[in-house]
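haha ok so turns out i had the wrong file open the whole time. this is the CORRECT one, sorry everyone. sequence first:
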Amino acid sequence: MSRSARSCLDCGEPGRCCWAQPPGARMSTDPCRGMHLLIQADIDGELGPAEVATVVAHLETCPACADLQAQLLALSARIREATPHHAAPAPLRHAVRARIRRASPRLSLWGRHWRRGAGTTGIALAACLSLFVLLPRVDTMPDWVVAAHIRGLQSSHLIEVASSDQHTVKPWFSGRLPFSPPVKNLTSQGFMLVGGRLDYFPGNPSAVIVYKRRAHLIDLFILPTNEEEKKQNASGTQQGYNYLSWQSGGMTFWAISDLNSQELSEFSSYFQ
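then structure:
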C-alpha cells in the first residue's frame, strides 16, 4: 500500500488523499506531522533502532499518535491476512541477501539505499523482496533485541500488565497480537513472572514476557517464526547484556538480561 494511501485513514472524503491540499490552502501546522511519517516508516520496517526509540518515546506522551499507530498496525494486519504470501526459495533468498551485502553491508534492506538511487539493480531487488513479508534479518536480530531491551528498561512502560499469574498475563495479549504467546510461571525454578508488554520489530508486533531473578530483569521476546529463522538459534553478549534464542511451536523466543549467561541458559531450559 502506498504511503499516501496509508495516511488517509481519517479522510472525510473517501478516495481523496489527505496530503492533497486545495489551491491556496495553508500548509498544516500539526507539530506531529513529521512524526506521522516516522510512525509509518517504522511500521514498514524502514527505521533503525535509534529512530524507533524516538518514535516509542513520542508515543508515550501523545495519545493521538498512539491511536494512529494502532490504526495503521490494524490495517497492516488486515492486509497481511488478506494477501496470499509465497515463501521465497532458499537460493533466491541467499542470492538477494548476498547482493545487498555486497552493495551496502551496513544499510537496511528497505530504505536508504533505494532513496539514493540504486538504479535498475536496486529496483529489481526491491521487486523481488516485495513478494515477501520479512522480519529483520536473522543476523541483525540481536541488535534489535538489545535495543528493545534497553528501550524497555529506560521506559516508564517496562511492564504494561503487572502480575505474577500467567492466567492474568496471557489473556492480556488477546486482541493485541495476531498470535497467542505462551506464558509460564517459573517461580518454583527461581524466575518470578512479573508481567508483560508489547514491543515492535520492523512491521511486526512482539510479546514481551518479563521475569525477575534476584535483582535482574529478563525480557523474553516472542514472535512468529519466519522461514529464515528455522533452526537458527543464537547466543551472545552485546553492551553488557546476554541473549539467546530458540524456536518452538512456530514461535521464536529471544531471552535477554544482564543476568550471567549460565543462569540465562537455565531460564531458557526451564521455559522450554
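The longest strand covers residues 192-201.
again sry for the mixup
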